[in-house]
Amino acid sequence: MSAEQIDAPRAVIVISSHVARGSVGNRAAVFALETLGFPVWAVPTVILPWHPGHGRATRIVPPLDQFKALMADLERAPWLGEVGAVLSGYLGEAGQAEAVASLVAAVKARTPGAVYICDPVMGDSGGLYVPEPTAIAMRDRLMPIADIATPNRYELEWMAGAALPDLKSVIAAALHAGPSTMLVTSAPSMMTGGTGNLLLDSSQALLAEHRLIDKPPNGLGDLTAAVYLARILSGQPPIKALQSTTAAVYEILARTAKRGGDELQLETDAQSLSHPMAMVQLRHLTHPGRGRRA
Hints:
single chain, about 290 residues
């Protein structure tokens, strides 16, 4: 890492859900970022006892006026210059999107090189699991201002308004989604029995693949967004960041599955975040804007 990178703002504001038990939302992202050396300002958009997929879960959503007031406090915080990135994930309600956008603008005004990564957490293969106005707010207010977005394939399908059955259609949708860099998880794989992370920017299309594990615990998308952000902030080029992020998340997933865990066991496998050993297949795909292999 260069001296310039060491001196750069390193704190990350993470805005997402908080669970008392489990490794999803802020619990996954904050752990990963802090383990990898980045201070975190954590803002909960909703508080739950556990992921609703485990059963009935009480939702505590901050009143919107109080949420906006807290975010406004952060905008004028004397330490705002410490912040080098903002990561937003699950929103508790649609109105929170405007406060997130305002905070992103304040961070970028203070530090023009700051990165905003939007993980538009809104659904999966079963459809939307947030109210449609919340999904629309993420699509229309936050995606257009993001430097990087990390939707899963099903979220990208919803935003594109069309099925994306193959890599060609996923790439086309990602190119039109808005952010200059798209990292699409749960992408179609060229590997039999596999799944992939597709990274697309202005010059390259890359696919990192690994074996598909049935019935994975929740939180993989939250973890992927946080680890990829940490890699980029550490100065890794996109191709290396994609490979090492995919390897880390897959390794933690595989180890959790082997133990029969119902939640990602990040504290047990923290070393996998820094030094993953899992092998993933990395492919260079044809970029439509370049007409040749990247």
